[in-house]
Design a protein that fits this description.
The complex is a heterodimer of chains A (446) and B (387). Chain A has 446 residues and is an alpha+beta fold. Chain A has helices at residues 6-21, 79-90, 133-144, 164-177, 225-229, 285-308, 340-344, 396-399, 402-422, 431-440, and strands spanning 31-33, 36-38, 51-53, 56-58, 66-75, 95-98, 120-123, 126-129, 149-150, 161-162, 181-183, 187-194, 197-205, 208-219, 234-236, 239-242, 245-248, 263-264, 271-273, 279-280, 316-320, 325-326, 330-332, 352-356, 367-370, 382-384. In chain A, helix 2 (79-90) packs parallel to helix 9 (402-422) and helix 3 packs across helix 4 (164-177). Helix content of chain B is 48%, strand content 7%. A two-stranded antiparallel ribbon of chain B has the order 1-2. In chain B, strands 3-6 form a two-stranded antiparallel ribbon. A two-stranded antiparallel sheet of chain B has the order 4-5. In chain B, strand 4 and strand 5 form a beta hairpin. Chain B is elongated, with a radius of gyration of 25 Å. Classes of the chains: A alpha+beta (446), B mainly alpha (387).
């Protein structure tokens, strides 16, 4: 072992100085891994700490490193975002998908809302399939895996329910096959604007705050975080915030009528249990915290009740959703709005981008969705997809379902790709071209 | 049997057909047109509903005309008169027997007007215009035309009887002219022709008092009582008044764009026959529509501005909690989303950590918007008996 030399001492001082000055630079301090010193975290973009200026917390003005430049940026890796990224990538443009968690599927997987609603139209005892395109392909791939889906298939009269882990796996596989550039654990926090045109987004991550520049952006955040940050008009909503959980070891002998044992999943003896929860503002962090805490407590109270009743002794909590069941928070003020009256009267849209299945409150009738519900009124190069598309307070209960999210995601992805290739704003894309493109990708436009 | 001239038939056909087509196309026009043309109907309506408004103004010109010229309306305007007259011409036997009969119409008219003071205008449905509109109403339900058919039958069997002796509107015109003569006589000091005009004040007094007394009695006896299960259109008069004031013309039923108004064919008692009832099978009461009230010629359904109509309760929503999806932790709550009045609310229980649907009875007006949208049809509108 070498004695501690002057060189070592100077080196230590040097590193120490670097570490201290690291606050002002993007270069971080070295960390110890085992016994050797490596240069890790050198890319943390923190821009130095915030400081107090007359008692006010201030962040220093600085340049944000651009991590990626891409054609289509999809924000949010939930159902709509994944389908949008796939649609855009298959149209031949470069796509980056940014997801805040470590897996894909959003509420469908991490939120444990496992039932795929509105895939069919039930009319006159018939069960007509209405899910087509990429969503259909995804479901087929999920169902092809053992314990991937239940109640799936042409002869099923009930709504398909999928396994969350299988869904995450299939989604990741499809994205990688399509060559989508993926950024996980990256929480998009702000928009990069050039007048009323969006040029990219900022996201927070373990590497600090970074930017992605893009020609077109698809907001599939569910809460419309991107279009809200970009300054697009939106409508706030207060809705129930639930927390779903799964129960394991549920014997079929237990009476599911008196106890809420939820619904079937593809895994034997495992059931998923929905929760309505209290109404609240889903963009308020204190509300969300309260709902997480209260929801978990409520789940354990219920489970205790099940375990204390006959036949339920062996039931256990398999998992609680790692994501709150946020139903609605913000919807886009689009160039068109999905309205209940229009669905009732089976309105035909010239800019239809898909026809979805029916739902409990309008049974037996497919729902046409126009392109305008994805397009913001004033902001350019931005499209919404998923549950934040323009819909009135009744129809948002439809657009938030899995199958309609696939539908709007598919259209948004294709439209964004078309906007890139034809170099126009999304509001000006050629509708016949877009509709042809969607049909080629096997979407159903009525 | 005399064959009527071709020209007469065409004339009658046109005279009947044109107003029918007009009224059929614009059911809203009825609300103003009828009271304007028939002072009997207009005055009774004003007295019964105790609303002094455009109806009263509309009544005045025709009143002036009939005071100025005896039976002006009968001679020039009455469609029922034309029909009755033509029937008389077709009739196999010329009959003058009615001349020996007393003027029953005057009694009917005065009794009805008297009843109107206590909100029960007994024989309002005998107004000839109301009868005529009933014929239009047959387009929605055949029974609306029964009274009109009765007049046609009477006219065929006993020509002249209806117009001269039975029609309350005709009688009103006679009374008005008699009163004028009496007043003019008093004022100018000329002797009044004995036997006729001399009896007018007494007749009026007896008729009106008789009607008012009977109506008051009926009110107190609660003959019909409340019919808790029946839903009436918004702004409808109370049950007892409704039964007398509604002339069963079917205009409201035709005017309803959602076709939720239906003639009551199975009333709890006969006086409620053919009254409009609300059934939420095909839709709900729209919050931008007040057409039933606009179309009602008598004010049995008040003609109200839309905002005020929305405040009138049809009934109250009631939720069957066992059928409600939300109570069973199934995604729903669509009723709360469609209720524009905020009367259907999602109540959250912190103890059970569950949500359920509650009705704010102050806000609910029973419009039924939540009824058909409810997937398990767990909501029914019940008549509001607290009112």
């Amino acid at each position: 072992m070498k004695p501690y030399s002057r060189r070592d001492f100077l080196r230590a001082i040097g590193w120490g100085t670097l570490a201290a000055s690291g606050a002002g630079s993007v270069w971080g301090a070295p960390i110890h891994e085992g016994s050797s010193i490596i240069e890790a975290g050198k890319n943390i973009s923190r821009g130095g700490p915030a400081f107090l200026e007359d008692g006010v917390v201030v962040q220093p003005r600085r340049e944000i490193p651009v991590l990626r430049e891409t054609d289509v940026l999809v924000v949010g890796g939930g159902t709509a975002g994944v389908v949008a990224a796939l649609a855009a990538a298959r149209a031949g443009v470069r796509v980056t998908l940014v997801e805040r968690y470590g897996c894909f599927g959003g509420l469908w997987t991490a939120g444990l809302v496992l039932i795929v609603l509105s895939t069919h139209v039930r009319a006159g005892g018939k069960h007509q399939k209405m899910v087509y395109g990429i969503g259909d392909e995804m479901l087929a791939r999920i169902a092809a895996i053992r314990h991937g889906a239940v109640n799936y298939g042409a002869d099923s009269t009930q709504d398909a329910t999928t396994d969350p882990e299988v869904t995450k796996y299939v989604m990741a596989g499809m994205l990688r096959e399509a060559g989508v550039d993926i950024l996980l654990n990256s929480w998009v926090t702000n928009a990069v604007m050039d007048g009323n045109v969006i040029r990219g987004v900022l996201f927070e991550s373990k590497s600090g705050c970074l930017a992605v520049k893009a020609k077109q952006v698809v907001d599939a955040t569910g809460d419309g975080d991107v279009f809200d940050a970009a300054g697009a008009e939106s409508v706030p909503h207060v809705h129930r915030i639930g927390l779903v959980h799964r129960l394991g070891n549920v014997p079929s002998s237990v009476d599911a009528k008196t106890l809420n044992l939820g619904s079937v999943t593809p895994v034997p003896d495992v059931r998923w249990v929905n929760m309505q929860g209290p109404q609240g503002d889903c963009t308020d962090i204190e509300t969300l915290t309260q709902c997480e805490l209260d929801g978990r407590e409520a789940i354990w109270r219920r489970v205790k009740e099940i375990q204390e009743s006959a036949g339920g002794e062996q039931v256990f909590v398999l998992d609680v959703a790692s994501q709150l069941g946020v139903r609605a928070s913000r919807t886009l003020a689009g160039t068109e709005e999905l309205r209940l009256e229009d669905w009732k009267q089976e309105k035909q849209y010239p800019d239809v981008i898909g026809v979805g299945g029916d739902y409990s409150f309008i049974p037996g009738r497919g729902c046409s969705i126009p392109y305008g519900v994805l397009v913001p009124k004033s902001i350019d190069n931005l499209l919404a997809a998923g549950r934040c598309v323009a819909a009135d307070n009744t129809m948002l209960n439809y657009t938030r379902l899995i199958a309609p999210c696939m539908l709007t995601g598919h259209a948004a992805g294709a439209a964004a790709a078309l906007a890139v290739t034809s170099d126009v704003a999304p509001r000006n894309v050629g509708l016949p071209v877009l509709q042809d493109m969607l049909r080629q990708q096997k979407a159903f436009l009525g | 049997m005399k064959r009527p001239k071709k020209s007469t038939v065409i004339k009658i056909a046109l005279l009947v057909a044109l107003p029918l087509i007009a009224l059929w196309s614009f059911p809203r026009a009825l609300g103003i047109l009828l009271p304007a043309l028939s002072p009997f109907l207009g005055l009774t309506s004003v007295l019964t509903t105790r609303t002094v408004g455009i109806t009263l103004l509309a009544v005045l010109p025709m009143t002036a005309l009939i005071v100025w010229m005896r039976r002006f309306f009968c001679r020039f305007l009455c469609p029922v008169g034309y029909v009755s007259e033509t029937c008389g011409k077709i009739s196999p036997q010329p009959w003058r027997g009615y001349l020996r009969l007393p003027r029953l119409g005057q009694g009917v008219a005065l009794f009805t007007l008297g009843g109107a003071f206590s909100a029960v205008p007994f024989f309002l449905f005998l107004d000839p215009l109301a009868l005529f509109i009933g014929a239009v109403g047959t387009a929605t339900y055949w029974a609306y035309g029964l009274c009109f058919a009765g007049v046609v039958l009477i006219s065929l069997l006993f020509p002249g009887l209806w117009c001269a002796r039975l029609c309350p509107l005709g009688a009103c015109q006679d009374l008005a002219v008699d009163l004028k003569d009496l007043a003019v006589g008093k004022w100018s000091g000329k002797p009044v022709p004995a036997g006729n005009a001399g009896q007018v004040p007494r007749r009026i007094f007896l008729g009106v008092c008789g009607g008012a007394a009977t109506a008051t009695l009926v009110n107190h006896l609660q003959v019909t009582g409340e019919s808790p299960s029946l839903l009436r259109p918004p702004g409808a008069a109370d049950e007892l008044t409704m039964r007398a004031l509604c002339v069963r013309c079917g205009s409201c039923v035709r005017a309803c764009p959602e076709t939720i108004l239906h003639p009551d064919l199975t009333p709890p008692d006969l006086t409620g026959l053919l009254l409009p009832v609300v059934r939420f099978k095909t839709g709900h009461c729209l919050d931008d529509c007040a057409r039933c009230g606009e179309a009602c010629p008598t004010g049995a359904i008040a003609c109200l501005p839309v905002a005020e109509k929305n405040e009138r309760k049809i009934g109250l929503a009631r939720v069957d909690q066992e059928a409600c999806l939300l109570s069973r932790e199934i995604e729903c709550g669509i009723c709360a989303a469609v209720c524009k009045r905020g009367a259907v609310v999602e109540a959250f229980s912190k103890d059970s950590y569950t949500a359920s649907i509650r009705i704010d009875t102050d806000r609910c007006n029973g419009c039924g918007a939540c009824v058909n949208i409810c997937p398990p049809r767990a909501i029914t509108i019940m008549a509001d008996t607290h009112d």
